[in-house]
Design a protein that fits this description.
By secondary structure, the chain is of the alpha/beta class. It has 12 helices and 23 strands. The chain folds into 2 domains: 4-33 and 292-423, Lyase, Ornithine Decarboxylase, Chain A, domain 1, CATH 2.40.37; 35-288, Alpha-Beta Barrel (TIM Barrel). It has helices at 19-26, 35-49, 65-73, 83-91, 108-117, 127-139, 179-189, 209-230, 256-274, 287-290, 324-328, 418-423; strands at residues 4-6, 12-14, 17-18, 30-34, 53-58, 77-80, 99-101, 121-124, 144-151, 154-157, 160-163, 173-174, 193-199, 236-238, 280-283, 294-306, 310-315, 335-336, 345-351, 360-368, 376-380, 401-405, 408-413. Strands 4, 16, 17, 18, 19, 20, 21, 22 and 23 form a 9-stranded mixed sheet that branches. An 8-stranded parallel barrel has the order 5-6-7-8-9-13-14-15, surrounded by 7 helices. The protein binds ligand LLP. Ligand LLP is lined by residues 58, 60-61, 79, 102, 201, 204-205, 240-243, 284-288, 324, 328, 384-385.
């Protein structure tokens, strides 16, 4: 995050609060989130896209009531993909018209809840769902604003950019073969639906702009096809999320202005050549907003050198608070933050306390050779998809999220307790 610095005594501070104080007051493991950084990133996205576009924060990256309030204050909209996320958004006062509902298998209950609440859009993901949402809306006597999620034949993950003719995955309706066009045809005939646009999300942790550009171009081409076939110009397109962040110094992320400029240019150009009015663009960044704003603070418990291999450093959390290393081979960095050290570098693997050997937090890192139990380690860039994917494996208590700002720290999601765990057991 942006307000990290090391003070004269060697202790790292974030938002003006020393990590040693955070550990004492709120404990380890814990997620510590820089609220100023979060708000600045929100503002950067809103400013980059301007008033003729909309930014929807992807709640799956991390959502809490405090986060919803910050988003609201900073002028963002919110993408939710489950009833739980919808409930959190509404409970924290996000106006329903600024919420988009996603998901490839929304239940009738979820759809009813969203339509009743008056969400600004539902993103449709299958033929069944087109009929289902139309039915619910009609029963409730409303015309629900919807987008259709299409798969443009571009799959962009991590550093790779692969254009595939046909996609083999569960989301969306394919442009290739005419599924997407058929979905549009159906949606346009149903009274319960107001089709406002086309949606495309091509992947996550992407650095290469080319994938976004191909996606934007193909979505605009579909708009032209819809105009030709039905005589309607859909007013909106959503180009999804996916902008990558720096987990290690090898990553070179793009700024929101770069993606805004690239998307607006390509959409503008394609529309001009097709004779279309430019649609209103929206995007759905999750990771790029919240990812860099938080780090996980751990305490070292054991240090175990394996002769000729590496040193295993066990911390008091692990795969229950960060599954990404085990699940995606994700790379993280780690630093000793409770003191400085003049000791030489020691090839280390930072592991958790769970009962399996795949419980790795940071696969390869150099830590000072005098590392010892009681030292505090910070793993940066854990704001996205860590607390939101945390589990109770081994009956771990999920760590708190603590927001720091101007020398103050406050809990925005409290640590779980044994009572929380036991409350679910019946009998
Ligand atoms: N919009 C849609 C429709 C999405 O499916 C996603 C992410 C986003 C927006 C936000 O993408 P972002 O800007 O955060 O990359 N658990 C994985 C990431 C899964 C992303 C799923 N969809 C991880 O930890 O890397």
């Amino acid at each position: 995050s942006r307000t990290v610095r090391r003070s004269a005594d060697g202790v790292v501070e974030v938002g003006g609060v020393p990590v040693t104080r955070l550990a004492e007051e709120f404990g380890t493991p814990g997620y510590y989130l820089d609220e100023v950084d979060f708000r600045e990133r929100c503002r950067a996205w809103v400013a980059a896209f301007g008033t003729d576009a909309d930014v929807f924060y992807a709640g799956k990256a991390f959502l809490s009531r405090a986060v919803v309030r910050w988003l609201h204050e900073e002028g963002l909209n919110l993408d939710v993909c489950s009833e739980g996320e919808l409930a959190t958004a509404l409970a924290a006062g996000m106006p329903a018209e600024r919420i988009a509902l996603h998901g490839n298998n929304k239940s009738v209950r979820e759809i009813e809840r969203a339509v009743r609440a008056g969400v600004g859009r539902i993103v449709l993901d299958s033929f069944q769902e087109i009929a289902r949402v139309a039915h619910v809306a009609q029963e409730l006597g409303v015309r629900q604003r919807v987008q259709i999620r299409v798969t443009v034949g571009v799959e962009a993950h991590t550093h790779e950019f692969i254009a595939t003719a046909h996609e083999d995955q569960k989301f969306g309706l394919a442009l290739a073969g005419g599924q997407a066009a058929e979905a549009v045809r159906r949606a346009l005939t149903l009274d319960g639906l107001e089709l406002i646009g086309i949606h495309s999300h091509i992947g996550s942790q992407i650095f290469d702009m080319a994938g976004f550009e191909v996606s934007a171009r193909r979505v605009v081409q579909l708009l032209a096809q819809i105009r030709d076939e039905h005589g309607v110009e859909l007013p909106e397109i959503d180009l999804g999320g996916g902008l990558g962040i720096a987990y290690t110094s090898d990553d070179d992320p793009r700024e929101p202005q770069e993606i805004a400029k690239a998307l607006k240019e390509i959409v503008g150009r394609e529309c001009e050549s097709a004779g279309l009015r430019s649609p209103r663009i929206s995007v759905e960044p999750g990771r790029a907003i919240v990812g860099p704003t938080a780090f996980t603070l751990y305490e070292v418990g054991t240090v175990k050198p394996l002769e000729g291999l590496r040193t295993y450093v066990s911390v008091d959390g692990g795969m229950s608070d960060n599954i990404r290393t085990a699940l995606y081979d994700a790379e993280y960095s780690v630093a000793l933050v409770s003191r400085t050290s003049d000791a030489g570098p020691m090839l280390s693997r930072v592991v958790g306390k769970h009962c399996e050997s795949g419980d790795i937090v940071v696969r390869d890192a150099f830590l000072p050779a005098d590392l010892a139990p009681g030292d505090l380690l910070a793993v940066p860039a854990t704001g996205a998809y860590c607390r939101s994917m945390a589990s109770n494996y081994n009956h771990a208590l999920r760590p708190p999220v603590v927001a720091v700002k101007d020398g103050e720290a406050r809990v925005i999601v409290r640590r779980e307790t044994e009572e929380d765990l036991l409350r679910l057991d019946v009998g």
